[in-house]
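Page 47, continued from p. 46.
Same chain as before, 643 aa.
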Amino acid sequence: MTNEFEVEQEYDASQIQILEGLEAVRKRPGMYIGSTSIRGLHHLVYEILDNSVDEALAGFCDTIVVTLNADGSCSVTDNGRGIPVGIHEKAGIPAVEVVFTILHAGGKFGGGGYKVSGGLHGVGASVVNALSEWLEVEIKHEGKIYKQRYERGKVMYALKIVGDCAEGESGTRVTFFPDREIFEETVFEYDTLADRMREMAFLTAGLKIVLEDDREEKKSNTYHYEGGIREFVSYLNHSKAALYEDVIYCNGEKNGVVVEVAMQHNDAYNESIYSFVNNINTPEGGMHMTGFKNALTKVFNKYARDNKILKDNDTDLSGEDIREGLAAIISVKISDPQFEGQTKQKLGNSEARTAVDAVVTEQLTYFLEQNPQTARIICEKSVQSARARDAARKARDLVRRKGTLDSMNFMGKLWDCNSRNPAECEIFIVEGDSAGGSAKKARNNSTQAILPLRGKILNVEKARLDKILGNEEIKTMISCFGTNIHEEFDISKLRYDKIILMTDADVDGAHISTLLLTFIYRFMPDLIKEGHVYLAQPPLFKVEKGKNVWYAYSDRELEEIMQAIGRDSNNKVQRYKGLGEMDYKQLWETTMDPERRVLKKVLYDEEQAAEIDLTFNVLMGDNVEPRREFIEKNAKYATLDIQ
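Result:
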């Protein structure tokens, strides 16, 4: 492990600083971990993990083991220095007890214990403790093993020595059981944690993170990448065709900011760029992202001009043109990061912009000079993108001109609702005129609009913007929603609070839903992020017995109904193959009535942005092999429907 910053080797009780007390965490957990949902549950693991990763960033830890224990608890073990066990001078109690029982206490407030750190900056350990039914910490230090237990944040016994260890051995093991009074769900999801472990290992070259599941399904994965973020970029591109062999890598330090950038273009049309500060994902970017984009645009335009790829009368390549099909990771380490908001969505340090711009400009310029073939490939793709973008601009203008609700062509496709209050309006996107006609008859025309689509829409993952904006179905949806797309997107102009995708409950219906979600995710992602996109859930079965009727939305629900009413010859079970098989009354009762229907909200997790992006590309991209692997891995979750 390379220690990028000089850190005081001595890490003792004097470096633990107290800022304030603890009790508010249990009263308002959402303020500290975002929510008490499954996402908040996993945040507990991330906070303890971040503390161990900070030890790795400081150069004192190279292995972390995260274990999902059979009793439902989680353990995080590292071979770092171990949390200090000496008596804290100000608090009069062991430093480890200060860390776990006092909010805003830790070695990350200028005491010299850490030069850089992630997590909640000293809040994490005490927050996890406060939100756990119980938590135990074990520390190996100077030949002894120390242990202390807490229950809902309260100390159960004084820190004590419970055994011996090798003289040079050190580290910390934290085991906690999330509080069932706080969290809606307390079962950890292996795959969700695995995505996070993989990302952290990519961002910390040489660090080994092991994820173990000791519950019913015994399994484990080890994440260890000596190539660091270069391997991260290769991972992002594994379902695409890279345009050149080597991942471009830039690193350096400017004004106390350590900069690492890795990038590689592929043959796709979407950019996949992710930024991190001290290993914390910054989904809204910030100064480091700005510095990267500035350097990229500047360097490639200069190269294209100097090498006559751009003629004197050609306009400069835009940043979007150069970034088409680019997978990139920007990672900076900074001692005093300034974030916008507690959730650390965006970096505000101006020195990060200057540092990234300087490092990338210098090293990318050198790379292009040394690799003219790669440079020309990128520039030529950028020129093609610029031409397509110009054609798309014309197509977008056409959409804008024809996109008014007064257009006869537009009105021929949309059955709009009467209300003009977006907060109470919803639009159903349905497949075909048959289902559309049934939905039109079933709907509440005061608040429910119906947009029937003719067949499967264009797969936007495989097309450039000019072709996409030439597609009639896509143009209609853009006009219907009212928000426009990409840099012109304006959510304040959204005409419907709910956009509901209502397709048949079969393979074709699932494919159409995926095509629609891909379009929305790539062109209007904020509709998903702000919670406006839903999937309708039509029933799979209708059960009749005498004059009574039941609807089942899954095989399990059908089985429960059959057990309740009995299996006899008077039973009639109908398997719906499509929405068109229901009359309008049944469609209203089962799928469209807000009082009785079931909707699935499409959620977006910022912490898994890279995995979401990768999944869309695997499912909808050109490369068949990654899709086959995905299907094989997830086949056990699918429902087999044999007629």
